[in-house]
Amino acid sequence: MIDAVNALRVTRAGPLALLQDAGRCGVRRLGVTQGGPVDLHGWAWANHLVGNAWGTPALEVTFGGLELVAERDLVVAVAGADLAATLDGEPLAGWRALAMKAGQRLAFDTPVNGLRAYLAVAGGFAAPPVLGSVACVVREGLGGHDGQGHRLAEGDHLRVSPRRAGSGGETARAAPPEARIDYRQPAELALLPGAQVGEFSGESLYRAFNASWRVDDRADRMGVRLAGPPLHCRLTSMISEGIGLGAVQVPPDGQPIALLNDRQTIGGYPRLGALTPLACSRLAQCLPGQEVRLKAVASERALADYRRFRSVFA
Amino acid sequence: MSRRYPPTLPRLEPAGLDGWMVRLFDAIDEANMPWLTALVRECEAAFGDELVDLVPSYTTLLVIFDPLRLSPAEARRRLVALLARLTPDEDAADAPVKELPVWYDASVGPELARLAELAGMSRDAVIACHSERTYRVFALGFAPGFAFMGSVDARLEAPRLDTPRRRVPAGSVAVAGRQTAAYPAVTPGGWNLIGRTPAVLFDRDREGFSLLQVGDRVRFVPIERAEFERLGGDPRPMEES
């Protein structure tokens, strides 16, 4: 931290921009949530494009509205959502590494395709780890650029290690077309059935996997509510227990909630199962009103998909 | 410790790509906790750095492992082996009791009167009843360092507020159902507030971070306002704090 220098200054904050590493581990038993990027795919690609290792902190920009000025020469990449970003007013190409000169202005506007863009800088953003992680969780006041869980505000600085700030990535490095997801297409979310799946009525199970679900506007980093035909479960509540990433819980109103990175660590609603990590990523890019479907998958298949994804970022 | 698992348990349930839910018991009981704390320790030893996280709670332990290094099948084999030889922590019954000083007062505990009315006893009797028991920490959750403790005397059992408060002051000591807790930080909350502790429940700079850990034994110790302030408590009443 001592050798970190200013890389970018925030000239307009936008609604929600948070620094995220791979998440906070080993402290969930204390009620401390996981945090980390809600779209692992976009976050991992942004880092990879500038030559950063898995786990390097990158900026999660939700919805847009953020404006940053470079305070030194940098190599950066934007992946994930297209938020109509511009560099000195010119459209910025996503999914590729590019040079950003001191004084240049990077601005995110509003969502064109997807909801969350990830900005990585070669060398990685530097911030004080809190409980072992830089992951920013606003509700808990932990992590982020200042260690206090704050979203970026006007006048804030993002810092980087100077040894690597202007190097690391090939500026021509680009993600292959198959990695660039069109988030406007209907999403099919892979779900691993859980232990309470048998407690749902047959009709509800049929609906769960055959109906189309609408992403509700009650959606944030804690969870995304899905609106559709109410699901009926014989269990209405349970003794609270640990909740994994992507758990799809069904409260008594029958409307499922997919729980994401900032979820509470324990809860007592029955669950259909858990979305795979990549399904969570896909859901996190959906805007309210978008349609999604749930698709049951076998653990072996989901594991193979996840290992294939991770193998790119070794 | 003669108690064994219920006949259908323990059970391993799938919990996503990288997790197993170990279900040890089917009811909340203080006697569950020595089994759970033992299982936490055994998992740490058996999984080493392939372990990502553990979430113990009341009757279960959620085990999260690294799916790049361990298949769910291999993780399951390890858990089965470990459960077969699990024995409860023997020293749990006489583990040291952590004491939480509490200033019980209507100004910081607006539901003292409600509990007294529900129980048909005086406020002083409510305070005595709440503070004479030794509680066990069943789980941490809701917020960092928020410990769910039980079990509260049946006479003090009280439902949550119909409308949760948007802002409960840090240190607030509360009761809901037959559980009790202290709020580590300012959060929304729907529990019945009966007092306030000056103790710092969660501190990112402290070893272990959380004052209370799953399995701990805890006792609330009544103190006067002067002592509360001397220990660094914020005495401002609910409406101002």
Automatic annotation (TrEMBL), chain A:
Question: Per its UniProt record, what SMART domains does this chain match?
Answer: AHS2
Keyword field contains Hydrolase: yes
Please give the Gene3D superfamilies that the UniProt record associates with this protein.
Cyclophilin-like (2.40.100.10)
Sorted UniProt keywords: ATP-binding, Hydrolase, Nucleotide-binding, Transferase
> Is Transit peptide included in the keywords of this UniProt record?
no
**What is the top-level taxon of the source organism?**
Bacteria
Residue ranges occupied by any Carboxyltransferase domain in the UniProt entry: 29-313
What GO molecular function terms would the record report? Answer: ATP binding; hydrolase activity; transferase activity
Which PANTHER family would you find in this protein's record?
A: 5-OXOPROLINASE SUBUNIT C, CARBOXYLTRANSFERASE DOMAIN-CONTAINING PROTEIN
Q: What is this protein called?
A: Biotin-dependent carboxyltransferase family protein
**What organism does the UniProt record list as the source?**
Halomonas urmiana
